[in-house]
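Input (structure):
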């Protein structure tokens, strides 16, 4: 049985120690980072930089506390994410969202280079075969995975597994393209985009959101460059008329997340990766989108563990116990207390990613929760 440490988001005293940053400091002290990280050891602090308009990420103040704790343990941390839009643009987005070397107290770098092609092929599993793991994450000896917990339009739930699987893998590879990158998880088969001209309203949202500018319209006809496309699926997501679709298989996607997470974690020695889940600003969709909707669940707190499966199971257990918030999409969908809010938001079998991760040996869903105050 694994240990999951927890600090509640509630502040019941007018003291710094009762604040969320103060409680994170207490969690990190209780966890004793020196057990995991050596003096002068490089440590990647893996997070998500967000998007232009999507601000509900792990806040820089929390990243700074993690960095400071690693410095206190003698390690040499840096904050990183893999390319999700064009690399230079992504660094600007990180800065706009408050993530830079001044705010977090450590260098902020892209794990797979400005072009997203700096990666190494690693064996993943039966579904994915080999997958392109970002070179910095592949090579660094240790990592702290800081995940913003949320719903997700395709995964149903996005936490540490998705952060490692999607964020530790590049969008494409120099030779085999998207088929060796995270696009292999997103899509099924050849992943060809289909367009229904009769439904299309020519609003242009798909063209605007595409990170690679592979969608254009010529004389009212959609043009798509399938060779350059990363298969991220953003175009389909923002199409409010249902004119665009990419082939998907929910169960395959969930299992491929677990496979990719295993591939990424296989590049680390035992006890060199820890996980911090931030159960805050729990919005219904991914931080990749150009907006951040209002939270569907009240802030719950922060969890910390060295078991990726245990922390995910503990996180979901907390989310499912929390009542849905009014004036959110949960209210619009008439989700009631006691309902499986994650499933009702997306209708995706999100638990498969956790069950499969346990089956692949990444951890255990059995855990002991220790509350730190």
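Output (sequence):
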């Amino acid at each position: 049985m694994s240990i999951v440490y927890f600090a509640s988001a509630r502040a019941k005293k007018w003291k710094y120690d009762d604040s969320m940053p103060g409680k994170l400091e207490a969690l990190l002290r209780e966890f004793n980072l020196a057990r995991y990280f050596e003096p002068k050891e490089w440590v990647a602090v893996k997070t998500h930089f967000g998007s232009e308009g999507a601000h509900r990420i792990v806040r820089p103040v929390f990243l700074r506390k993690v960095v400071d704790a690693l410095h206190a343990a003698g390690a040499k941390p840096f904050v990183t994410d893999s390319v999700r839009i064009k690399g230079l643009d992504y660094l600007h987005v990180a800065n706009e969202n408050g993530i830079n070397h001044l705010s977090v107290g450590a260098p902020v770098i892209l794990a797979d280079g400005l072009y997203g092609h700096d990666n190494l092929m690693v064996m993943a599993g039966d579904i994915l075969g080999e997958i392109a793991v970002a070179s910095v994450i592949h090579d660094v000896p240790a990592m702290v995975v800081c995940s913003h917990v949320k719903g997700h339009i395709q995964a149903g739930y996005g936490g540490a597994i998705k952060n490692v699987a999607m964020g530790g893998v590049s969008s494409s590879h120099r030779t085999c393209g998207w088929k060796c990158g995270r696009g292999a998880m997103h899509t099924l088969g050849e992943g060809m985009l289909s367009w229904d001209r009769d439904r299309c309203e020519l609003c242009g949202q798909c063209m605007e959101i595409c990170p690679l500018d592979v969608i254009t319209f010529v004389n009212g006809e959609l043009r798509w460059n399938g060779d350059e496309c990363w298969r991220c699926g953003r175009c389909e997501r923002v199409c409010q008329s249902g004119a665009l679709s990419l082939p998907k298989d929910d169960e395959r996607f969930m299992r491929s997340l677990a496979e990719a997470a295993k591939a990424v974690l296989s590049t680390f020695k035992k006890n060199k990766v820890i996980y911090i889940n931030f159960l805050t600003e729990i919005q219904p969709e991914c931080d990749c989108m150009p907006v951040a909707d209002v939270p569907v669940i009240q802030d719950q707190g922060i969890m910390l563990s060295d078991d990726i499966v245990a922390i995910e199971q503990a996180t979901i257990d907390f989310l499912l116990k929390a009542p849905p918030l009014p004036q959110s999409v949960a209210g619009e969908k008439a989700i009631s207390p006691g309902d499986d809010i994650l499933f009702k938001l997306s209708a995706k079998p999100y638990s498969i990613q956790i069950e499969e991760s346990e089956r692949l040996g990444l951890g255990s869903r059995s855990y002991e929760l220790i509350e730190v105050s």
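Notes: The longest strand covers residues 2-8. The chain has a mean pLDDT of 93.
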